[in-house]
UniProtKB/TrEMBL annotation, chain A:
Its main location: membrane. Belongs to the binding-protein-dependent transport system permease family. The lineage of its organism: Bacteria, Bacillati, Actinomycetota, Actinomycetes, Kitasatosporales. InterPro entries: ABC_transporter_permease, MetI-like, MetI-like_sf. This is Sugar ABC transporter permease. It comes from Streptomyces vastus. It comes from the Bacteria. Keywords: Cell membrane, Membrane, Transmembrane, Transmembrane helix, Transport.
Automatic annotation (TrEMBL), chain B:
The keyword DNA-binding does not apply. InterPro entries: MetI-like, MetI-like_sf. Keywords: Cell membrane, Membrane, Transmembrane, Transmembrane helix, Transport. PANTHER family: ABC TRANSPORTER PERMEASE PROTEIN MG189-RELATED-RELATED, ABC TRANSPORTER PERMEASE PROTEIN YESQ-RELATED. It is a multi-pass membrane protein. This is Carbohydrate ABC transporter permease. Belongs to the binding-protein-dependent transport system permease family. The lineage of its organism: Bacteria, Bacillati, Actinomycetota, Actinomycetes, Kitasatosporales. The chain crosses the membrane at residues 20-42, 87-108, 120-142, 154-174, 195-220, 253-275.
């Protein structure tokens, strides 16, 4: 990190030494050629769809007949007349609030354990990471449904009956699937921990700081950018979980709408019931909520995220 | 990264029991985590009556016929066809992402152009954009183009660098390459295209491999997009075929269903075993440099 600060000056002198820079316009042209696929994608597959769905959210549209302008009706119906909508909001928020902290907490604990390990760290790191790659698959979602079903492993061990058939527990089974995939944030935590200079701990140990004290005063502040990164990323991802809820409830969001995640209800409204206008309104509310949550996370981050190398780049 | 870890331990001698406890804890956690996978493997060879009724993880006898039933596939479409379809989509996505994302990344990392700052910020913002916000109009667009129930909606977006996460990943990697390389190439008379293809791209290989592997796995696991775009059984992927089992929950189908689940997971497991270093390092770097 310290070495990179010298390079800009050396580069600049070399640039002038080279002297043969092609004219500015020509270089601009080259840049746009490189960018063209991305620009096309951003325009046609991101910006245009966002604009279109904003328009559609004020219409009644079933894919076959032309959209009918209905003003704010989709939104008022959503907020005031649709109990399933609110159940999907509650299910999603409950899930995010349960799954993300559990997952990140476990990831941090395991990363701390692996950091102080000298042998076998690489092995455990890979082994714990593997579920993050498998967990999003339909195969694992089906395994989850069977393990947490009546007569499945969890029922046999705890005698509670299958979780996936009980409104209070089905959501927790899905949350555990997310926790199971703690490997990805763990790997990021571990890399962050290894970047903390060892001298900080040595100095603290000389001053007589306990391990807990060192954790609070060195590890947490030095790791806070990484914690923040993981928190934002996992929260956004958690809002969009679809496959496990679909598998566990056979696409219905049951029992009693307890796993009717926002995305599942959006799919149901848009693609099963063909209410594309209503689904567009739902998508825009999701977009605004995720935007707001991210903004709040960024806003609060100023008070707890510590950037040691501020202005480094 | 390596120097900081080597510097710490010299001061104090680690206590043996702490290390034992650490390893025991990690091993126990590993066993719990591996249980679902062991369960899947065991169930895929269990006779029908043991799948739910028996508490034993291990089957009393190996029922390989589960696999032969699974190979027959669903809706008269064999597993080989389904596997081929999945591979085609994932392969197309990999080529598209590697190509389009590296092109865009090179422009963002190395070239000067107007609005670079705002465009880069916009690109980063789209990483956080929920997929579902653009899904419905995208569907409508592809529907208008007559592309629903084809593979175009699944592959074409990858050729347009829509997965900004990978653009960002490659940008970060390219920023770490010494600029002197291109200076030298330019003095030798190479334009931006020559120096991209013959100097930068070969050096970016680790990031490209990471992009390729993650694209493959994410596309392979993808369910939502395939669910809305594909509806002819002969175009189904393994994931969509497995979905058929979600609706049909009769217990006799359990063995073949999990045999097919194993088949569907196999490519990911193989990829993981072959490329685990790239995957783990790629994931680790995504958070640190950001």
């Amino acid at each position: 990190m310290t070495t990179t600060t010298e390079t800009p000056t050396t580069v600049r002198t070399r640039q002038t030494a080279a002297g043969k820079k092609p004219p500015r316009r020509q270089r601009e042209g080259a840049a746009w050629v490189f960018l063209s696929p991305w620009v096309l994608g951003a325009a046609v597959l991101t910006l245009l769809p966002m604009a279109v769905s904003l328009y559609l959210s004020f219409t009644d549209y079933d894919l076959f007949n032309p959209p009918q302008w209905v003003g704010l009706r989709n939104y008022t119906q959503m907020f005031t007349e649709d109990p399933r909508y609110w159940r999907s909001v509650v299910a999603t928020l409950t899930y995010v609030v349960i799954a993300v902290p559990l997952q990140l907490g476990l990831a941090l604990v395991v990363a701390l354990a692996l950091k102080s390990m000298r042998r076998g760290r690489a092995f455990y790191r890979s082994a714990f990471y593997a579920p993050s790659l498998l967990g999003a698959s339909m195969s694992i979602a089906l395994v989850w449904r069977a393990i947490f079903n009546d007569g499945g492993t969890v029922d046999n061990l705890l005698g509670t009956g299958g979780w996936v058939n009980q409104p209070g527990w089905a959501l927790f089974a899905v949350a555990l699937l997310t926790v199971w995939q703690f490997g990805a944030p763990m790997v990021i935590f571990l890399a962050g921990l290894q970047q903390i200079p060892g001298e900080l701990y040595e100095a603290a140990a000389v001053d007589g700081a306990s391990r807990w004290r060192q954790f609070l005063s060195i590890t947490v502040p030095m790791l806070s950018p990484v914690i923040f990164f993981n928190l934002v990323l996992q929260t956004i991802q958690a809002f969009q979980v679809f496959t496990p809820a679909f598998a566990i409830s056979a696409g219905k969001g049951g029992p009693a709408d307890s796993t009717l995640f926002y995305t599942l209800y959006l799919y149901d409204r848009g693609f099963v019931a063909s209410h594309m206008g209503y689904a567009s309104a739902m998508a825009w509310v999701l977009l605004l909520v995720i935007g707001a949550v991210t903004a709040v996370l960024f806003r609060t981050s100023r008070s707890w995220v510590f950037y040691a190398s501020e202005g480094d780049r | 990264m390596t120097t900081s870890t080597a510097a710490t331990p010299a001061v104090r001698k680690p206590i043996a029991w702490r290390r034992v406890a650490l390893h025991t804890g990690c091993l126990a956690a590993l066993l719990v985590m591996l249980y679902p996978l062991a369960w899947l493997l065991a169930t895929s060879v269990k006779p029908a009556d043991e799948v739910i009724a028996s508490l034993n993880l291990l089957p009393s006898s190996l029922e390989w016929s589960n696999y032969s039933t699974a190979l027959e596939g669903v809706n008269e479409v064999s597993v080989w066809r389904l596997l081929g379809n999945s591979l085609f989509i994932a392969g197309g996505a990999v080529i598209g992402n590697v190509l389009s994302c590296s092109l865009a990344a090179y422009a963002f990392a190395r070239l000067r152009f107007r609005f670079r700052g705002p465009l880069f910020a916009f690109m980063i913002a789209t990483i956080m954009l929920p997929h579902h916000a653009v899904l419905i109009p995208q569907y409508i667009i592809f529907n208008q183009l007559g592309m629903v129930n084809t593979y175009w909606p699944l592959i074409l977006p990858k050729f347009l660098a829509t997965e900004a996460f990978f653009v960002f990943l490659i940008v970060q990697f390219m920023r770490g390459l010494p600029r002197e390389l291109e200076e030298a190439a330019r003095i030798d008379g190479a334009g931006p295209f020559r120096s991209f293809f013959s100097v930068i791209l070969p050096l970016t290989r680790p990031a490209l491999i990471t992009t390729a592997i993650f694209t493959f796995i994410w596309t392979w696991n993808d369910f939502f997009t395939q669910l809305i775009y594909l509806f002819s059984p002969e175009k189904f992927t393994l994931t969509l075929a497995l979905r058929q089992f979600v609706d049909a929950s009769s217990q006799s189908a359990f063995g073949p269903m999990f045999a097919m689940s194993v088949i569907a997971l196999l490519p990911i497991v193989l990829f993981f075993l072959a490329f685990q270093r790239f995957l783990v390092e790629g994931m680790a770097n995504s958070g640190i440099k950001g």
